[in-house]
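Final report, closing paragraph on structural work. Over the funding period we assembled a curated collection of sequence-structure pairs, and we close with a single example.
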Amino acid sequence: MDVEAKAMLHKIVLGLVLLTVSAAGVLAHHGWGSYDAAKPITIVGPIESSKFEMPHVLITVKAPGKVWTVVLAPTSRMMSRGAPAEFVAVGKTVTAYGYASRVEPAEMRAERITVDGKTVEMR
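Its predicted structure, as stored:
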């Protein structure tokens, strides 16, 4: 195989690898179709745990009758809107408005949250 053919093959293989990696990232993001946007809910309670990591920040909230997993925005969006990890620290009381999951009975996707009198939009 001559040098030009090897270079072309290398470019093709590299392109396929990049395409595969980028497609995997898209597939890893779950989408929002499994949340019931027709029935918004509001929960209020103390934050029991907080994971400030990608792909989305997650908090658990002890609301009356149920402990909820609340899916928030990605860390970069939280930071750009003035909501660093300390904003959703364990022990703080949060009001979360959003949509319950159709799949996970104790999970919701928050559209906005209020902590310490400050409201932050998630979308």
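The CA atoms of residues 43 and 96 lie 5 Å apart. Residues 35-121 form a domain with the OB fold (Dihydrolipoamide Acetyltransferase, E2P) fold (CATH 2.40.50.1010). We thank the funder for supporting this effort.
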